[in-house]
Amino acid sequence: MKVGDSRELRIILDTGMHFEGLLVYNKDLKDSITLEHEIEVKVPGAGADSASTAVMADSMSFFVGAVKFTNQRIIILQSDVMADFPSDGVTGYSLFGNYIVEVDYDKMVITLHESGEVKIDSSWELLPMTFKDNKIPWIEAAVNIHGKNEVPVSVYIDLASSDAVELLTKEDMKFDLPDELKESYLGRGLSGDIYGQEGRIAALKLGSFYLEDVVAAFAPAEVRSKQEGADGIIGNNALRRFNLIFDYKNARLYIKPNEYFSEPF
């Protein structure tokens, strides 16, 4: 991506980014990105600490390849919470809200389709999505912790998460914990570090497909997620095993196993 005369930015495509715009992690980039009528804001996110400080401007433009996006919100963090990340930031709904987004992990290509352009054949499986009170996609899935009982779970998709599945621990959780867990640093959000546990579960079910012997993260719900009612989060280490077509306007996700489907966790 590019904003004005900035250098090319390395940006994560994130389904958790629920507004049209770009969030830039590196405060040093403010010198090369001219914000019009900027204001100071607080940006909350996962983590146990306070929200991050940032500057923000609306009605900006940026390019993704040759595609120009206008009327975009650009936020540049002014804290160092994400300073050591290897990417420059995240974007999401700008693409997902305006195009049918195809993610082909076999070819490592993201394709933006106009509505009605995509031909879906029988090799794809449809997963209905819901959006509740925001623009973050939710699906129904199932987990099998010990290899005995399959438990339905309501999860939302976080394409920026490197885990396969993050199960949220809380008083009313639907699943048991694995017998063996280890304490783990699970990552960092806009409100600080996230600590939890890691263990293996027998299976994760997405549609009719089973991913087996999955390494799962277990995180306190009040620290990891701001989404009320969520049982867990589906991340990229599960989704990268499928080629994907996100159709937000019709609330549909199409999945098809790819060359990574049987790769051990």
Written description of the protein model:
This protein has 265 residues and is mostly beta strands. The chain folds into two domains: 11-96, Cathepsin D, subunit A, domain 1, CATH 2.40.70; 119-257, Acid Proteases (Cathepsin D, subunit A, domain 1, Beta Barrel), CATH 2.40.70.10. It is built from three helices and 18 strands. Strands 1-6-2-5-4-3 form a six-stranded mixed beta sheet. It is globular, with a radius of gyration of 19 Å. The two termini are 31 Å apart. The model has no long low-confidence stretch (mean pLDDT 90).
Compact summary:
With 265 residues, the chain is mainly beta.
Shape: globular
Helix content: under 10%
Strand % is over 45%
**Could you spell the SSE succession in H and E letters?**
EEEEEEHEEEEEEEEEHEHEE
Any guess at the CATH architecture of the largest domain? Beta Barrel
- Total domain count: 2
Number of strands: 18
Rg measurement, Å: 19 Å
Q: Let me know the largest β-sheet.
A: 6 strands, mixed
Terminal CA distance reads: 31 Å
Structural class: mainly beta
Specify the CATH homologous superfamily of the largest domain: Acid Proteases
User: What's the number of helices?
Assistant: 3
Say what the CATH topology of the largest domain is.
Cathepsin D, subunit A, domain 1
Unreliable spans: none
Strand order of the largest sheet: 1-6-2-5-4-3
Mean pLDDT: 90
